[in-house]
Design brief:
The protein is an alpha+beta fold. It folds into three domains: about 1-70 and about 195-395, Bira Bifunctional Protein, Domain 2 (BirA Bifunctional Protein, domain 2, 2-Layer Sandwich); about 85-195, Herpes Virus-1; about 405-510, Rossmann fold (3-Layer(aba) Sandwich), CATH 3.40.50.800. Helix content is about 40%, strand content about 25%. The chain contains 18 helices and 23 strands. It has a seven-stranded mixed β-sheet with strand order 3-9-10-16-13-12-11. Strand 12 (about 320-325) and strand 13 (about 330-340) form a beta hairpin. Helix 2 (about 40-60) packs across helix 13 (about 375-390) and helix 5 runs antiparallel to helix 7. About 30% of the residues are buried. The structure holds glycyl-adenosine-5'-phosphate. Glycyl-adenosine-5'-phosphate (GAP) binds near residues 333 and 335.
Length: about 525
């Protein structure tokens, strides 16, 4: 049986082999933590974006969308706090010359204690079998107690250092915990220093007149600076939201786990503007709505959990992550933040413009508070792929790789296959394609044996394969083969559209949210 790590490695290869994700500029050996989406990846990604966009804008009369530019006036980032505080703590190993995030090294160390505890629990479980009382074991086993105490002490010390921005203490923790560089194996560490994650470039033709500008590290600021534009032109009444999908850029120091942490990625963000004092009610509303959005896809309710932030950003009064169980543990896919009036107030201060809302019901003006939902398209893509990817052993010693994607997200909804490339079957297959292609993404395949064609479609997650054979010419029926069960049905061509629609139409999914 393959380990989770091996399965994840296979998934990454699969993504490349079947046109989902390629390393960027691969012919030049790639570019660190930058990826391109291939012919199937882009379809899956577009379907995810469409699901999110429709759930925000179509299902909420008071949410509208925008598409702001990536380049923004540089003062935006001064006002938002990114120029001064969008930093990660960095540390270098002098022997390997490798650079690490100090916080990640310490978090990995905490995870090691957790693993040790888990191993003890599993060992004991095997030994005691059915009668094993895990809670009692955790409370009384001396080795578990010792690991737990060390873990908790480390966690507390680390949280304190992070909250106080104490870089010396972070280094001291690394030394005290005897954390070694995974490459050189030594503890020859430099001091910890802050590293700003924004990419910058110059706008303008001469170096004299050129202005330093940044590639946006989040899409949210494009929404904040357009608050008045949208509110006034759309005659929006509070509470209301503005949604946006777009690229964001961060010079991540530790870029790993495939598309989980990238330097160029895509966000789907929604800022919901509310009356001051109403924010906790809306924070809870959006937490529940967003979790429902995830669960409606049917990837498995047990794979999600909320993780409330202990350390709040200086502008937030509540924050939580929706985490998904990836092969490398529960990881953040989405953040939901109560950002108070920080961003709008800062932009008012730095621009000198009044950014307020006149509330006719209260007969007064105020700076709205904001609840933000922010999800990474790429992380969502990864969570969908991780839950869909399966290596199956079949009867008769055969095996297959299948992507059990939710049909609404599948890149290709159905593949139409003439049994042979003659006798009028290809022509009949084209007729069937024409019945479906205007509403669904359909492929045509006439190469190789039917078995091989099925495998190719399984590998990209196509829910239906439709085979046209000689009988089709007489009875106008086709063989439909289902991806997950591999069962086959004979059905009338006239019923095909409804069959595909019933599984693949986004409307059914959206209905689950209201
Ligand atoms: N506007 C709020 C904001 O940007 P964030 O928690 O830094 O908050 C939101 O990012 C989401 O964007 C994350 O939950 C994650 O899904 C995605 N994200 C952030 N950094 C990323 C990266 N380097 N690569 C891929 N996705 C990333």
């Amino acid at each position: 049986m393959a380990t989770q790590e091996e399965v994840f490695k296979n998934l990454v290869s699969h993504c490349k082999e079947y046109g989902f994700v390629f390393p960027s500029s691969e012919i030049y050996d790639g570019l660190g933590a930058v990826y391109d989406y291939g012919q199937n990846g882009v379809e899956l990604k577009n379907n995810i974006k469409q699901y999110w966009w429709a759930s925000m804008t179509k299902l909420h009369e008071n949410i509208v969308g925008i598409d702001a530019a990536i380049f923004m006036h540089p003062t935006t980032w001064k006002a938002s706090g990114h120029v001064d505080a969008f930093n990660d703590p960095l540390i270098d190993n002098r022997d390997s010359k490798k650079r690490y995030r100090a916080d990640v090294l310490i978090e990995d160390q905490i995870a090691k204690y957790d693993e040790k505890i888990q191993k003890e629990v599993e060992k004991a479980h095997k030994r005691f079998g059915e009668s094993f009382d895990e809670q009692m074991f955790r409370q009384t086993n001396p080795r578990v107690i010792e690991h737990q105490q060390k873990r908790d002490a480390l966690h507390e010390r680390y949280s304190k250092a992070m909250n106080a921005n104490d870089l010396d203490e972070l280094k001291q923790i690394i030394l005290d915990e005897q954390i070694v560089c995974p490459i050189s194996g030594t503890r020859n560490w430099t001091d910890v220093r802050q590293f700003n994650l924004m990419f910058s470039t110059e706008m303008g033709s001469t170096s004299d007149g050129a202005m330093k500008i940044y590639l946006r590290p989040e899409t949210a600021q494009g929404i904040f600076v357009n608050f008045l534009n949208v509110q006034k032109t759309g005659r929006m009444k509070i509470p209301f939201g503005i949604a946006q999908i777009g690229k964001a850029f961060r010079n991540e120091i530790v870029a790993r786990q495939f598309v989980f942490r990238m330097r160029e990625f895509e966000q789907m963000e929604m800022q919901f503007f509310v009356r001051p004092g109403d924010e906790m009610r809306w924070f809870d509303f959006w937490k529940q709505f967003r979790l429902k959005w995830h669960k409606a896809l049917g990837l498995g309710d047990e794979k999600y959990r909320f993780h409330d932030h202990e350390k709040l950003a200086h502008y937030a009064n509540a924050a939580t992550d929706i985490e998904f169980l990836m092969p490398f543990g529960f990881k953040e896919v989405e953040g939901i933040h109560s950002r108070t009036d920080f961003d709008l107030s800062q932009h008012a201060k730095y621009s000198g413009k009044k950014i307020e809302y006149f509330d006719p019901e209260l007969n007064k003006s105020y700076t709205p508070y904001v609840i933000e939902t922010s999800i990474g398209v790429d992380r969502m893509f990864l969570s969908v792929m991780c839950s869909a990817y399966k290596e199956e052993q079949l009867e008769g010693g055969d095996s297959r790789v299948v992507l059990s994607l939710p049909p609404v997200l599948a890149p290709v909804k159905a593949c139409v296959m003439p049994l042979v490339r003659k006798d009028g079957l290809p022509e009949k297959a084209r007729e069937v394609m024409d019945l479906l292609r205007f509403d669904f993404n359909i492929q045509y395949d006439e190469k190789d044996s039917i078995g091989k064609r099925y495998r190719r479609q399984d590998a990209i997650g196509t829910p239906f394969c439709i085979t046209i054979d000689h009988d089709t010419l007489d009875d106008n029926c086709v063989t439909v083969r289902y991806r997950d069960t591999m069962k086959q049905d004979r059905i009338a061509i006239s019923e095909l559209h409804e069959l595909v629609r019933s599984q693949c139409d986004m409307t059914n999914l959206l209905r689950k949210l209201i």
